[in-house]
């Protein structure tokens, strides 16, 4: 009788495959991570402009006779969805009005602190957004 020996996978072969997969995953992370930050910055800018538009409409309809609208007032007036009041980093957008009662919406950015270089405002240029994404 002839016996066939079946050969299995050795531990060394498994370790080599796992190592190769880890190297590929690490390389993919290096490529994807900057795109994730860039998409968060773009999403924060888009959210800020949407909230600014809703706040301006709120003021024009006369509902904002008490001055600068708040996020809560916009949600109560059904100008914005209550689930979309936070920026991509989980912090609520801030609404500020200047002396002319012009609305400005701000996201505190990745560091979650106000008045820092990574803050995202509704009136930023694309070049400024790109700089923030590269920080």
From TrEMBL:
InterPro entries: N_methyl_site, Pilin-like. Keywords: Membrane, Transmembrane, Transmembrane helix. Signal peptide: none annotated. Residues 100-135 are annotated as: Disordered. The chain crosses the membrane at residues 12-33. The keyword GTP-binding does not apply. It comes from the Bacteria. Residues 109-135 have a biased composition (Basic and acidic residues). The keyword Nucleotidyltransferase does not apply. This is General secretion pathway protein G. It comes from Sorangium cellulosum (strain So ce56) (Polyangium cellulosum (strain So ce56)). The lineage of its organism: Bacteria, Pseudomonadati, Myxococcota, Polyangia, Polyangiales.
């Amino acid at each position: 009788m002839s016996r066939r020996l079946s050969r299995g996978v050795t531990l060394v072969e498994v370790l080599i495959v796992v190592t190769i997969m880890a190297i590929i995953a690490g390389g993919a992370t290096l490529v994807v991570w900057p795109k994730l930050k860039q998409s968060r910055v773009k999403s924060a800018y888009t959210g800020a402009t949407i909230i600014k538009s809703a706040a301006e409409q709120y003021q024009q309809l006369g509902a904002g006779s008490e001055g600068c609208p708040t996020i809560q007032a916009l949600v109560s007036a059904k100008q914005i969805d209550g689930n979309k009041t936070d920026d991509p980093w989980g912090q609520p957008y801030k609404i500020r009005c200047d002396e002319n009662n012009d609305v400005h919406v701000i996201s505190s950015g990745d560091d979650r602190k106000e008045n820092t270089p990574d803050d995202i405002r509704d009136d930023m240029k694309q070049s400024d957004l790109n700089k923030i994404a590269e920080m």
